[in-house]
Amino acid sequence: MSSDLNIVALVSIGQHPKSGRARRAEQDARAVELGLRLAGERVQVLHAGDAADESLRQYAGMGLKSLRILQQSADADAVVALGDYLNEHRPDVVLTGVRAESGESSGMAPYLLAEKLGWPLVTRIADIVSIENGEAQILQALPRGQRRAIQVRLPFVASVDMAATAGRQSAYGPGRRAQLEAMPWVETADSERTQWQHAPARKRPKRLKKVKATTAAERFKAATAKSQGTGGRIIKDQPAVEQAQAIFDLLLEEGVIR
């Protein structure tokens, strides 16, 4: 593998699924891990946002000497800033996570960056086997542990799947000693995001029928077997008002409506 490869790993601020606390994002940490394996300490880790966020040092604690931050406010469009930076520096490989753990979490960043740069995009990769003569041999993650071999020419954008090697443990000391290079960068307001309305998530209604099958055969049998009702009553010949009231009472009982 060439020693002069220019690899950039894009990172975001993660969010713990239980506590909600800021942390390094799992998929982004895998992207950094892959970049470290391919280029060692020469991999460049890039973030667009607030340089004062302490969770960025969890990435630095993976063995990085520095981490570059494009200064952006919370209302700025990070994709525009990242695209302009990458278009100016022209790396060979750009690694990202599949989707962020906080913010919009739309999973569109790799697609928008690849479109802006005019580069091919390889989604959900598990590994980059080799890069030789301007071509990369890639393993793409598929369902049920399967892999697909892909060959793509440099430069390209790749989103790293959870099937990739997990990020190494972050060391506190090296993370504190690493340099966070904050770069002032032109901001572009995210006009679409400013028009959104945010509201707390509503509790989803529970399913009327719960299948406790654990194997595919049991799930198929539960889906095709004739159901035997217990404790029900026939309302076919009842007046429409009584039929509607019976359906309404059932929905209330099951918690579908309140």
TrEMBL record:
<dbReference type="InterPro" id="IPR012255">
    <property type="entry name" value="ETF_b"/>
</dbReference>
<keyword id="KW-0249">Electron transport</keyword>
<dbReference type="Pfam" id="PF01012">
    <property type="entry name" value="ETF"/>
</dbReference>
<comment type="similarity">
    <text>Belongs to the ETF beta-subunit/FixA family.</text>
</comment>
<dbReference type="InterPro" id="IPR014730">
    <property type="entry name" value="ETF_a/b_N"/>
</dbReference>
<feature type="domain" description="Electron transfer flavoprotein alpha/beta-subunit N-terminal">
    <location>
        <begin position="13"/>
        <end position="189"/>
    </location>
</feature>
<keyword id="KW-0813">Transport</keyword>
<protein>
    <submittedName>
        <fullName>Electron transfer flavoprotein subunit beta</fullName>
    </submittedName>
</protein>
<dbReference type="InterPro" id="IPR014729">
    <property type="entry name" value="Rossmann-like_a/b/a_fold"/>
</dbReference>
<dbReference type="GO" id="GO:0009055">
    <property type="term" value="F:electron transfer activity"/>
</dbReference>
